[in-house]
Specification:
mainly alpha, flat
Amino acid sequence: MSGLEDYARVLEARLAAEADAAAPAARKHRRHRRPVGIASPPEAAAVAAVLGPACAPVPRGTRTARGGTERWLLGSLLLLLLINALLYWKLYQYQRHLDVEQLHSRMSGLDGPLAAEWARLLRQHSHEQRGQLRAWRSALDATRALLVQTEQALIKLLETIKPSLEAPPDPPAPRDDL
């Protein structure tokens, strides 16, 4: 095993030496460019002295692409707020036009066969709703029964495990396999 460890150390040292030797060469070929319109600190002082403080260049870090991103985010936020306000207005208009008394007056003015058809449809709908309610109640009762059964099984399992957890561990038996 020590042969593998030695090989790994030698390989790591060679890779580190190669990386250190290649790093300065790679850095020589990089070109550093200053953003247009931003002067270095000595030039900034000279410009401010000649033109006055009102015409001084903007300090580094304040004129970036973040301004465009912030404007885009602000515009998106305003658009979403306008859409939200429009949806609230439509909801208000819908609720204003939905009048229960008006619906009741319309229903009371129906003639015999049409009123009987509406009454039949309403009874059928309420019957379907009661059936769905019964189905939900039975599903909830079955779920509750399953949870109680699971709780009882877990309590029984805990009672079975508890004595083994409280007992001190048995010392390992001596092995004479060798």
